[in-house]
Amino acid sequence: MSYAKNLLSRGEEVVFESRQHWLAVLGQTWLFVIGAILVLAVLIWATSSDLGSIEGGVQIVSLVLLIVSLAYLGIKIWAWRNQEYLITTRRVIKSEGIFNKQMGDSSLEKVNDARLSQSWIGRIFDYGNLDIMTASEMAEKGMVNDFPMLAEPVKFKVAMLNQKERLEFPDLAPPPVQRPAPPPEMQRAEPMAPRAGSSQVSEVRADGAVAAAPLPAADPAPAASPAASPAASPAASPASGGTGDVAAALESLAGLRDKGLITTEEYEAKKRELLERL
Q1: Cβ 77 vs Cβ 25: under 8 Å
Q2: pLDDT value at position 275?
Q3: Contacts of 165 (CB under 8 A, 6+ apart)
Q4: Closest C-alpha among 111, 147, 154 to residue 130
Q5: Rounded distance, CA 206 to CA 217, Å?
Q6: Which residues, 6 or more positions from 146, have their beta carbon under 8 angstroms from its beta carbon?
Q7: What average pLDDT is seen over the chain?
Q8: Nearest to residue 151, comparing CAs of 12, 22, 2?
Q9: Which residues contact 155 (CB under 8 A, 6 or more apart)?
Q10: What's the distance, CA 170 to chain centroid?
């Protein structure tokens, strides 16, 4: 992880990250680039030609100059890669250096204004100079407020101003993204009650009892009052031919008819059949 990101406080997140444009490195090292090319050409020419006694000295000097130029270029590129210009949810951070680090930060609450300047070449290659005016002491020393040849300066400034506004006016901040809830599990559909006239409707057996296979059982016939005399009950009379069972069957059929499980025609047919047995 980078040096600056290791110093973030709890809950602090990086919003935007940038560094100097690569043309800034080229502007600091163009003389060494040209010198390295010339020294390399001299080294090749001295190796391929016969210069007598000075041939060895020219090759050594050219080789030393080439190594120095390449080393300087490598150090500048390495330092450029270690630049960290960060906009976090709370601060503006500027970190530079390879071995010896220089880091400055300023709270977004102390940022007063920002001035951006871009030339026409900077607009083509997307770089510019950004000056941030803050109330920080480090800003007065040039540690934080000076960002020369900043890459993507417009995005950097917009991200800084947006985060400053969210910090000062949290009510205007968009709500956090919430993941959609998982869909509910599929539930099995409950079986529907059989329609009237289907084969699943309860049938009346020959003895007058109701066969309720998949249907809910009918309400039982009310029990005879214990005070009633057995001789006075028509269901107990052997000559009545099972009047109590027929009455219970008729009540069950009436309940099925009222619930819509059998049709009126089926009810009348079963009723006549039961009454004929009396």
Answers
A1: yes
A2: 78
A3: 172
A4: 147
A5: 18
A6: 131
A7: 76
A8: 22
A9: 16, 18
A10: 22
Q: Which helix (H) or strand (E) holds 86?
A: strand 84-88
Neighbours of 92 (CB within 10 A): 27
pLDDT tens-place string over residues 20-66: 999 999 999 999 999 889 988 888 887 777 665 666 777 788 888 88
Residue type, 67: I
pLDDT at 41: 87
CB atoms within 10 A of CB 93: 22
Token pair, residue 79, equals 């330092």
Q: How far apart are CA 242 and CA 246, in angstroms?
A: 6
Domains and CATH numbers, the chain: 11-170 (2.30.29), 203-223+230-276 (no CATH)
Residue partners of 3: CB distance under 8 A and separation at least 6: 82, 84, 95, 101, 103
Residue 64 Cα to chain centre, angstroms: 56
pLDDT score recorded for residue 73:
92
pLDDT-above-90 percentage for the chain:
27
Alpha helix (H) residue ranges in the chain: 22-48, 55-81, 120-125, 137-140, 153-168, 243-258, 264-276
pLDDT in tens, 231-248: 334 433 333 445 667 778
| First vs last C-alpha separation in the chain | 99
Query: Other CB atoms closer than 10 Å to residue 76's CB: what's the count?
Result: 16
Predicted TM-score (pTM) of this structure: 0.56
